[in-house]
Amino acid sequence: GEAVTTSPGGGSGGSPRTVRLPQLQPSAEYSTLRLAKLQPSAKLKSWDSRRAVVAPLAAASPLQAPSGSLSARGERTLAPSSAYPPNSARGARPRAGPGSSHPLASGASLRLAGSEIFSLDHEELSSYRLRGREADAQGSGPPGGPSGASGPGALAEEESVQRPVETVPAHLVQIRQMYSPKQVKPDEAEPQEPGAEGAIDGADDPLLGESAATPVPGGGPDGMTPLGLGEDLLQTAVPDEEWDEEAILRRELAKLRTGEDVIAFFAKNGSNSSVKFVYCKRKENVVETDFRPYDLEVISELMEGGMAHAPHKLGEHFTISATGVVHVCPGQQSEHMSLGDWMHQCLMYSVLTSMNFFKYYIHGKVFTRWQLHTRYTVYCHSRTLLVRRLFLAKPMFVKPLVKIHSLMHEVESVKVMNIGTNVYLLADFAKEQTSVRSNSTSGASKDLEQRHDSTVAVLDKLVQTVSQSTEPQNPQDQQSTVMRPRMKSMVQEKKEGYDNARRHRLAKHDQSMLGDCVRLVDYMFQACLVKVVINAAVEFFHRVESSTKMFSISVAYGDKNMIFEPGLDDFMEMLSNLWTESVKVVNTVQSFLSVRQYDAYVDSYISSGNHQTVQGILESNIEYNHYTQAVRDRIMSDITKAQDFSDKHFELFRKIHDYGNSWNEESYLGAAKTHEELAADMTLMREFQGDLDKYKPHHNVGIIVVDGRNLRASLQPVPERGLGAMKRALTEIARKKCLSVLQRFDAANKVLDGRPTALNGYADYVKAYNDIKSQESQLEEAREEVESMYQLLRQYNVRVTGEDTVQMEFLQTKGNDFADKKLLEAHTYIKEKQEEMVENLNSVSQQSEAEAKKLTDQLKTGQQFVSEDAMVSPEVVLEELSQIQASLSKLEEKATTFTDHQGLFAVPNQFEFVEVEKAKALFADKSKLWNLVNDWTEQKRVWTTTEFSKLNVEQMNKQVMEYSKTAYQLTRALEGDEVATKIRSMVDEWKSNMPCIMDLGNPAMRERHRAKIRSAIGMGSTTVTLVSLINANIFDYKELVADISGTASGEFALEQQLDKVIAAWEDMPLPVQNHRNQRDLWILGDVTDIISQLEDHSVQIQTMMGSRFVQGIRDRVETWESKIRLGSDSIDEWLQVQRAWMYLESIFSAEDIQRQLPTESAKFKSVDKFWKDTLKKVRQSYRMAMEAFHIPQLLQGLKNANETLDQIQKSLEAYLETKRAAFPRFYFLSDDELLSIMSQTRNVEAVQEHLSKCFDAISRVTFTEDKKKDIVDMNDMIKEKVTFIAPVQTQGIPVEKWLGDIEIKMCESLHALTKVSVDAYPQDGIVRKDWLFGPYPAQTVLAVDQIMWT
Predict the structure, then answer these.
(1) pLDDT at residue 24 greater than cutoff 60
(2) How far is residue 522's CA from residue 1325's CA, in Å, rounded to a whole number?
(3) Can you state the angle between helices 776-795 and 759-774, rounded to 10 degrees?
(4) CA geometry: angle at 438 spanning 436 and 443, to 5°?
(5) Selection from 1295, 1274, 1294, 1270 nearest residue 1284 by Cα
(6) How many C-beta atoms lie closer than 10 Å to residue 1116's C-beta?
(7) N or C terminus of the chain with fewer C-beta within 10 Å?
(8) Distance, CA of 954 to CA of 997 (rounded, Å)
């Protein structure tokens, strides 16, 4: 937009003002800019006291532009060349005259695109100085007529000619510019498209008024001109001679309705009009709070008669003329305002009132006044109540309460704890706190009791004072007053009486406040007691937070960690007791509400149960809980830190503690300790003593002092006791070791001093010398060890006795003699005698070989060892072999000794005892052979003479295999030995017959099999032995025996299976259980296992019957086959009877069913008797299942019972069908539900639980409480009740009959209620609340509502 800066009024003085004109686009529609009241929805760019904001509005009547074309709405677009004159450059104002085409000059307005805001200052607008009408003496046509020209050329021509013009006031020029019509050439007007007559939207413009859209006679179809122009706009397009100016004036005056219309009129006509002013008044506000001072309306009464009559008695009114607006108010000076100022203020008022602050100012003001007044009223009311109830505002209560406040201050100074700066043991600290609380002379309990008593005394005095003030005047004083002559007037006496009564009321009121006063004091005292405990907690908290040492604890070793005494649990327990006892001290102080003399004042409060104890207050007090928890946490934290520190620091000394715990002096001294072990232990004790010298007994961790003195005292004796015991042990060990070593040296020297001459003696001497020589280093080490022991004793300052010293010296002498003399002499002697002894050894060795050769020849050639005849008596041969064994043992011992001597003498070529070894090997084989012969002979005799049935053929076969193996080995070792060959042949022969013997000894063989074999070999029934079988040539029938044995094995397997079946049924009871907790009524229990076993055994027996080995046991198998089949049939029939019996038993136990079905009841009784008798037999005599299945005539009886029960069930179904036919809704019920009803016909209420199935929406019916039991109403699931029009009778009537009556009564009752509901339906059909929620069922209401709706 173009910016133009001017001074107010177009002059040079004053502050500059800025007018921002909109930037017109080339394609913008030619529009109008109308000044209007800004609505609340208008968007404002800026606001100040000098600027009016005009929002873009809809276009006014389309005007013909100098150039361009009409738009689709019939509006003319403005060409770029005509938007602004060429001379309207930046900083210059365009001038306009009668023929100007400037939008502002022509009276047209600009339509702004989008929501752009056009800011226009009023003074800036009025500074435009436009040319007025031409004062042409020749009476030319209206400005802008047919001969006129418009556009920039016309403006230039006008300026060059400089015609004289009429100078008009600036505000009229401004307003006329906005309202004057644009000159249109008739030949440029284009016809308006059909339907475009609605393009004129100036009718609702508050400034143009109704004249912008007034039809013109002779115009378009609706009285409008072809372009839809108003009458006032056509005045410039039609010559003046064609119009009657007076008629036009009257027409315009007739259209004046509002002040805006009048201003527009004068803006158009100026002061040249015959009408100079118009009377107006303010419009009446529809809403009282909607104040619109600038909305004026024309006084129509004064417009009649051509304004010839003066106004009379108008009161407050306005006159509008071309010069301005005059506000006339009787009794006050009139106020004049120019039209420009009036429009400016009107516009400003509209803008201001569109702002929320000014728009709702009256509401906010009213609310604020109301709020302030309400707050003040509440404040005054609260102040009045406070004055009436405030104790310090009562003279009687002031001094006592001040005294009580002083006592409360003393109470707060009482201490329930004494937290000093000392270092305490936990027990001492707890004891001191107990003394502070409970000391009989200066304890907290005593102090609090004294303050309590003092407070009670003050309260007692207060109560006494208030009570005395409420006592009536003494009658004697009143009488004396009456007897005295009257000195006061009646008015004074009346006033005094009034004052006395008022004081009495105030005293009564004060007395009524005594209870609250006692409660107040009690609350104050409780608050002080709470403060006492909280102060103690705070003091304790600050003490522990100071991080200075406060508690001392001892430390000791535990299993893994250090143990504190007292420990963390002890501290926590102390704290718990400390707080508990502190709270107890203040909690035991008697409440003032429980003091007996105050009962009359506080009874109502005590009875309400709202009184809190000090303990309860403290338990919920945040500050108290915070500090107590903080103290607990700090102590716990410091103890935890002390624990960590102790675990780390004292762990260095745990080895001493552990050593002391494991130390047992007796065990240590009793154990065999070496010198090295003792030396190491003594060194360890010295290290322990060194560690204890570095021990620091005290350590500070926060408020905890870790005291390690007791721990050090317990560790100090450990190394001392250990070192003392070790010294004693070392002394004893040294003494014993010295004696032992001395004895070994004596023994060695004694042996070395010997000089043997015999072979065995020489050999022993050499052996002893070698042993001593090998121990020489050990002896020397032992001697050195003893010396080091005594040296160690001297190092640890142990006194050695004289005896031990002498023994040590003697050891040194013996040791030196052994090493320097004895060994050398013994070695020399051995070398001298060695050759002689070797020759003697060879001679005795050859003699031993010769003796061994003789024994070998005897075993090989002796007739008693190699002859088969000797096999008859093997025990004789074994006796001779035992004698040879004794001789051979002696030779073996000699050979071993001589061999040792050769190694001892270091003979280069040792003698070998070959004959001795041969004799040993041959003797072993011969002994084994004749032991085999002896065992075989004896075992064969047992096998052949024992009854065959008692033989263990498996064991026989095993022994024969072992004998055969041994015989084979001997024939190879003793090749050519007749005895070995013979025994092998005998064993092998027996081995070949073992398969037949195994078949004969088959455990599956029964007597029938043995008899068959005996029959085949021709044996009688005598006792069978192996000898008798061999004599009968049993081994010639091996195939027969094998065949019979295989058959026996197959039959034996079948017998085992059959035996398992029989054993299973012997242990299978028939389960029986009680029925319905009746004593004599029983039924079968769970028979699943029995049925499963019957099925399994049936399959097994069928498999047996198909086996080829069954012939031998066919009779038994067939017997059990029939038993299993009978059991299966019986259990099936039994269970079927049980199911039917249990179903019908509950039915026929009802007397109603028995009465209605007598025949079926009789049949069921017979079955019931059979059932009970059968179960009784089972329980008494046939407890096992297989036994019960074989009860005589059981299966037939069960079958008959099943047939009878089937007949009963069919009859029962037919009976139920007749009932359903009588009442078809019984089809909705199952047989069991219907039978439940039929079995309880005497109890008519039994049908209640089945009603919802017979009738979909009936939950229950209501029976009368008398004996008739008539039904009076029905109820649904949500408790809606419908009363029958007549009761339904039930006594003496079948159930199906009275249920049918319910159905009939249901329909009749709903029909009757529907009729009543129709009659009660409201006439207007609108107010239906009473009818909808009236005494009608919902179904009826819905039906009638639908009827009325249709």
Answers:
(1) no
(2) 69
(3) 40
(4) 55
(5) 1274
(6) 16
(7) C
(8) 10
| Whole-number Å distance between alpha carbons of 528 and 534 | 10
Residue 1100: partners with Cβ closer than 8 Å, 6 or more residues away: 1057, 1061
How far apart are alpha carbons 541 and 634 in whole angstroms?
9
Q: Please check whether residue 85 is in contact with residue 58, taking contact to mean a CB–CB distance below 8 angstroms.
A: no
The three-class DSSP label of residue 165 is: strand
Higher pLDDT, 84 or 422: 422
Classify residue 10 by its DSSP letter: G
**pLDDT tens-digit readout, 1044-1055:** 777 777 777 788
Give whole-number Cα distances, 151 to 106, 157, 1322, in Å.
11, 10, 79
Structure-token pair, residue 1201 = 């019972």
Rounded Cα gap, residues 333 and 323, in angstroms: 18
CA 21 remoteness from chain centre: 71
Cα–Cα distance measured from residue 1324 to residue 402, given in angstroms and rounded to the nearest whole number: 77
Residues pairing with 720 in the sheet: none
Residue position matching structure tokens 């249709």: 1350
Between CA 650 and CA 1146 the distance in angstroms is 86
Asked whether the whole model's pTM tops 0.85, one would answer no
DSSP code string of 809-848: HHHHHHHHHIIIIIHHHHHHHHHHHHHHHHHHHHHHHHHH
pLDDT band for 2, please (50, 70, 90 cuts).
very low
Cβ 1174 vs Cβ 1194: under 8 Å: yes
Task: Give the amino acid at 709.
Answer: R
The residue type of 150 is S
Which DSSP symbol is given to 560?
S
In the chain the first and final C-alpha atoms are separated, in Å, by 69
Strands 3-6 and 317-321, by their bridges, are unpaired
Closest alpha carbon to 345 in 355, 356, 337: 337
Q: Assess contact for 678 and 523: CB atoms under 8 A.
A: no
Please say whether the dihedral angle defined by the alpha carbons of residues 389, 394, 398 and 404, taken in this order, is positive or negative: negative
Is the CB of residue 172 less than 8 Å from the CB of residue 266? Answer: yes
Q: What is the 3-state secondary structure (H, E, C) of 593-645?
A: HHCHHHHHHHHHHHHHCCCCCHHHHHHCCHHHHHHHHHHHHHHHHHHHHHHHH
Which tokens in the block code for residue 1284? 């029958």
Contact 1261, 1273 (CB under 8 A): yes
Chain segment 1286-1335, per-residue pLDDT in tens? 999 888 888 888 888 988 989 999 999 999 888 888 887 778 888 888 88
| Amino acid making up residue 972 | R
Tell me how far apart the alpha carbons of residues 907 and 899 are, in angstroms, rounded to a whole number.
10
In 10 A of CB 48, how many CB atoms?
A: 7
Q: Which residue has the tokens 């005007």?
A: 63
DSSP tag of 37: P
**Cα gap 1048→835, rounded to integer Å:** 83
Q: Quick one: pLDDT at residue 487? A: 65
What is the token pair recorded at 1097?
């055994």
Instruction: Provide the Cα torsion 1019, 1022, 1028, 1029; round to 10°.
Output: 50
* CA R_g for the chain: 72
**CB count, 10 Å around CB of 1161?**
20
What the block records as the tokens of 54 is 């005009």
**Across the beta sheet with 1271-1275, what order do the strands follow?**
1260-1263, 1271-1275, 1281-1288
Q: CA-to-CA distance for 345 and 337, rounded, in angstroms? A: 10
